[in-house]
Design goal:
13 helices, Rossmann fold, eight-stranded mixed sheet, alpha/beta
Length: 278
């Protein structure tokens, strides 16, 4: 395991952690809103971290990364793309497979908008909505958005419920406590700015339409935060992808990589191995 801090072009320090085989094919894991690298413990503690070179980083405003509070650090889409690029370059990654969960999939999308897929080997869109259509917003996401006008206690309760809505198969009490702890590391101004972050729909569809690398879409059919229709929208937008498919997790919610880690790890292994044999 190796930890480093990587500076994004606008000066924000990003916490980056690496596991596994330094000579293996490369996987980059990008977490979701109010999460951190600890979200992926069921991947980094598995055979994936023995076979592959696995890299994950805390998004700006999250985990151990820098936490500016000015809205422009979250509202300007170029900054998210630059964060991914800074990590890829600092770690000298060569055609890695990028897996973006939830908000992490939107960050991955920003990278595609600004830099394309030429430096990537493949993409895993994981319970995410790269195409920001209102019909894909689930009741759990709508509830936490509605709570932003409440007092502190009301918002905290809504944010904890939002975290619980990440799962159809609940985590243990100990795991949930840890997850609540790192969720609360995100400053409230950063949360509000991220909630207001929007991207031009035409730019999104154009970027997805230019993707040529293989794409795996993983989505739980019981997802209460991002509805399954989001996966279908993503698939339809990928008109040039070399290969593309949706893997449906029939008994999972918003976190199939956590709720059915054994299956997800196996499918990610097969996907990466087909692109870059170990």
């Amino acid at each position: 395991m190796e930890d480093v801090m990587v500076r994004s072009p606008d000066g924000v320090e990003l916490f980056v952690r690496e596991w596994g085989n330094p000579a293996g094919p490369e996987i980059v894991l990008i977490h979701g809103q109010a999460q951190c690298t600890l979200s992926f413990e069921r991947q980094t503690g598995s055979f994936l971290a023995e076979k592959y070179r696995v890299v994950a980083f805390d998004l700006r405003g999250h985990g151990a990364s820098g936490k500016p509070t000015a809205p422009e650090f979250y509202l300007e889409s170029q900054r998210w793309a630059d964060d991914v690029k800074a990590v890829l370059e600092a770690k000298r990654l060569k055609r890695p497979v990028l897996a973006g969960w939830s908000m992490g999939g939107r960050v991955l999308r920003q990278y595609l908008i600004h830099y394309g897929d030429a430096a990537l080997g493949g993409i895993n869109f994981l319970a995410t909505r790269p195409v920001e259509h209102p019909s894909s917003v689930g009741p759990g996401s709508a509830a936490v958005a509605a709570a932003r006008g409440l007092d502190l206690g009301g918002r905290l309760r809504a944010e904890i419920e939002f975290l619980k809505d990440c799962y159809a198969k609940p985590p243990t009490a100990h795991e949930l406590e840890l997850q609540i702890a790192y969720n609360m590391l995100v400053p409230r101004p950063a949360r509000d700015a991220i909630a207001a972050w929007k991207t031009n729909p035409d730019a999104i569809l154009a970027a997805l339409g230019r993707v040529t690398v293989p794409v795996l879409i993983s989505h739980g059919t019981l997802d209460r935060l991002i509805l399954p229709v989001a996966a279908e929208m993503t698939l339809n937008a990928l008109t040039l992808a070399k290969t593309k498919r949706i893997s449906w997790y029939e008994d999972c919610g918003h976190s199939p990589f956590y709720e059915d880690a054994e299956r997800y790890n196996r499918e990610l292994d097969e996907f990466v191995s087909a692109i870059r044999p170990a």
